[in-house]
Write a structure and sequence with these properties.
The structure is a single chain. By secondary structure, this protein is an alpha/beta fold. It contains 13 helices and 19 strands. The protein has helices at about 20-40, 50-60, 60-75, 125-140, 155-170, 185-195, 210-220, 265-275, 330-340, 350-360, 365-390, 415-425, 455-465, and strands spanning about 5, 15, 80, 85-90, 115, 180, 200-205, 225, 230, 235, 245-250, 280-285, 310-315, 325-330, 395, 405-410, 425, 430, 440-445. The strands form 6 sheets. A 7-stranded mixed β-sheet has the order 6-14-13-12-11-7-8. Strand 7 (about 200-205), helix 7 and strand 8 (about 225) form a beta-alpha-beta unit. Helix 4 (about 125-140) packs across helix 10 (about 350-360).
Length: about 475
């Protein structure tokens, strides 16, 4: 029968099995001592009885007690030094309870409707087609595909992208010059660190854009220089007066957030600047595939493949959660990027790469894009028509492309409109959030691509309720 015994002088009770079960006795003693230290009943610095004394108190063999002490010393609960005996380790003290209970963490409240930019309609992700492509890709994949592989990415995906980008975006892409990365921000960080290592000190960026892109550039040790943006896109003519700027980041197909394309004269001007100065153009083509009134404008890279890094992702065409992007590198930069400074892992899932390759080569990607173009065009048309009828004084700017429009607002009303939308349960963003210079003008960024179909009508109604009345 088990026996419950107190250890002399200590607030400790050990439930011992039968005396013939030596290992069980030692485990019970070890567990009791560990629990006493963890709970604080044996305070840090407390000196324990000698193994001989404790063994006598418990009626155990001295070796059993010695083995229990040794195990707890090895785990860090006790310390043992010759001449000072066995003591409770100082670092084994239990943590103090907080002074007052902490409030439970709450998930952020979601708005009823969301028209903020940055996300496509994720409910439209083609799950069945993607799953079918994944099965085909896994069946056909060689065993070596599941190793560490080429740091540039799977050759199947690079070959599929080279073919697709040449056909759909006019990109001159060799699979050997394509690098797969986990989205545009990671690719931009890799490029920025490489350029800094090669001696570049400053990059020109559009003065309307995403702040985290500027942060990524500056975190790499580069200085960002703002380029004005007007109705013709970024004013690249100012680059001739900026001799320390050796690279420029542009969104030529559809400037974010103003929604205008880079004018043909400026496309030619920036290509000429790169050729004359040995400069580099970083082309962010984040939603260049979505044009509704005509064929999409071809990528700038097609004009100057030796001077342009083409950057694309699946974040808007499919979903951001895939974390799949690609860089098409000019020959002069390929080795520097692959061998240059890296921060952490920058590869992406082999399974997703193989699936996207199959999705592209099977034609499923093209079918999905055609479906989404029709869906987004209907939404944009409905938005423009509703504004024309209910708020004709609010002007819609930007070309019929991408996943958002800009609404011009009367001066000084942007903040109040954003707040009024919030009262309607609608999340929207003002133009000022994406303005990095002191340029004037109030406006709203309305991302009609974000809500699922069933929520779009409600979001549109909430938006119309929040807009200011006619002056």
């Amino acid at each position: 029968m088990p026996e419950d015994r107190a250890i002399s002088g200590l607030d400790l009770h050990v439930e011992l099995p039968g005396k013939g079960e030596r290992h069980g006795v030692r485990a019970a003693l070890t567990r009791a001592l560990r629990d006493a230290v963890r709970s604080g009943r044996l305070a840090p610095g407390t000196r324990l009885p000698s193994s001989r004394s404790l063994a006598a108190d418990l009626g155990l063999a001295r070796n059993t007690v010695g083995e229990a002490y040794a195990e707890l010393v090895a785990e860090g609960w006790l310390t043992a030094r010759q001449g000072s005996g066995t003591r409770v380790a100082e670092r084994a003290a239990p943590p103090r309870p907080p002074a007052r209970p902490r409030a439970p963490l709450r998930a952020p409240e979601r708005p009823a409707y969301d028209l903020r930019a940055g996300t496509p309609d994720v409910s439209s992700f083609p799950r069945a087609a993607w799953l079918a492509a994944a099965r085909r890709a896994l069946t056909a994949a060689p065993h070596e595909a599941f190793g560490y592989g080429d740091p540039r990415g799977r050759p199947e995906l690079r070959a599929a992208l080279a073919d697709y980008l040449a056909r759909a975006r006019g990109v001159r892409a060799d699979p050997e010059r394509i690098l797969i990365c986990a989205g545009f921000k990671q690719g931009l960080g890799l490029l920025s660190r490489t350029l800094r290592a090669c001696g570049t000190e400053a990059i020109g960026i559009e003065d309307h854009g995403l702040r985290h892109h500027r942060d990524t550039i500056e975190e790499a040790g580069l200085r960002s220089v703002l380029l004005p943006v007007d109705g013709h896109g970024a004013d690249v003519r100012v680059l001739d007066g900026l001799p320390d700027v050796r690279a420029v980041l542009l969104t030529p197909a559809h400037q974010f957030p103003t929604g205008v394309p880079l004018h043909p004269d400026r496309r030619a001007a920036v290509v000429d600047w790169a050729a004359r100065t040995d400069g580099l153009i970083l082309e962010d083509d984040y939603d260049g595939e979505f044009r509704y009134d005509r064929q999409p404008v071809g990528a700038l890279q097609g004009l100057a493949p030796d001077d342009v890094v083409y950057c694309g992702t699946a974040s808007k065409s499919l979903i951001p959660g895939l974390r799949l992007g690609w860089l098409v590198l000019p020959d002069r930069l390929r080795d520097e990027v692959l061998d240059g400074p890296r921060t952490g892992a920058w590869g992406t899932s082999v399974l997703d790469q193989l699936t996207l390759a199959e999705f592209l080569t099977s034609g499923a990607y093209d079918r999905h894009l055609r479906s989404m173009r029709q869906r987004y065009r209907r939404r944009r048309d409905a938005l423009v028509a509703a504004l024309a009828e209910e708020a004709p004084h609010v002007r819609v700017t930007g070309i019929a492309a991408g996943l958002h429009v800009v609404l011009e607002l009367p001066p000084g009303t942007e903040r109040s409109v954003v707040q009024a939308a919030a009262w309607q349960g609608l999340a929207v963003e003002g133009l000022s959030r994406f303005r990095q210079s002191a340029a004037a003008g109030d406006g709203l960024i309305i991302a009609y691509g974000t809500p699922p179909d069933h929520a779009f009508a409600g979001a549109l109604e909430a938006l119309l309720s929040a807009l200011p009345g006619a002056p």
